[in-house]
Amino acid sequence: xxxxxxxxxxxxxxxxxxxxxxxxxxxxxxxxxxxxxxxxxxxxxxxxxxxxxxxxxxxxxxxxxxxxxxxxxxxxxxxxxxxxxxxxxxxxxxxxxxxxxxxxxxxxxxxxxxxxxxxxxxxxxxxxxxxxxxxxxxxxxxxxxxxxxxxxxxxxxxxxxxxxxxxxxxxxxxxxxxxxxxxxxxxxxxxxxxxxxxxxxxxxxxxxxxxxxxxxxxxxxxxxxxxxxxxxxxxxxxxxxxxxxxxxxxxxxxxxxxxxxxxxxxxxxxxxxxxxxxxxxxxxxxxxxxxxxxxxxxxxxxxxxxxxxxxxxxxxxxxxxxxxxxxxxxxxxxxxxxxxxxxxxxxxxxxxxxxxxxxxxxxxxxxxxxxxxxxxxxxxx
Length: 381
Ligand code: SF4
Hints:
Shape: extended
Bound molecules: iron/sulfur cluster
């Protein structure tokens, strides 16, 4: 399989999105966040790789940004002005911090391929924003981020994207691996002007490759179900996604049964909300009855339409080591063992790739069912 880091990430976030983008290759318009990020990346490339021999001034940089700015992608003037201001701020800060520094930039926007041979040959591809060679001879991989949120150092230490980029670099220069030279991996958060770094060596190669192979295995077996995730709000495939498609069908071609389903949904919400109010009132009534019983030292109260009894219930926890000692010699222990699925998943996730694969092959589909959840629209003020 030939797959990019972005493909692996897309599948991990949502298999349906991966299918729309990488299998069906549906051309969806790029989101404004992606267009904004690409423009900022282009500006930084131009800053570090000027077309002329003279260094790029701040004015040149901002002019380049302004000329390439696309105002059509924003909903209104206010949104556009905010985004434009953010772009200018990012570039000004970057310029201030980096002007006059004689970086030893090895290359910019470097495509890479990582072959992984396991039953078949897989090629993992990607593009690294920038590789520098530092004064002490260490190579530094830098990826620019225009996202608002900055991860923790722990997240950076185990960042999958950087680990794949590491594989890309040692595949490009195998001597780095032979000499086990550490490589610095950095994510530069441009909005905050912060670079978060970690150091990686040969040690993590196996783990990264196993993770890649696990995802490839999952892709091969996947039925590409949609998976709700925090990126759904920005997903350009919503018109094709079973979880969002209905919103678009409604807007584009109102069918005859649309009013009917609208009424059903309305009634569903009304009943649920009444149920909620009733459940709350029931708890309040229970509390009043409990207090009355406590006060009068009774466990049954009579009303005009029946009576209510309260019963003491006790739950016990067993010392299973002792229980095991008793049941095992009489061959009854195995009969009560069940697998704790949450713990089981945790253990499986921590296993090496080949064991994980064997366990995965022992899996059969027990039953499939749909669960219904509900979310009310925000009330308009
Ligand atoms: S909207 Fe969300 S669930 Fe649907 S395809 Fe996109 S990411 Fe997946």
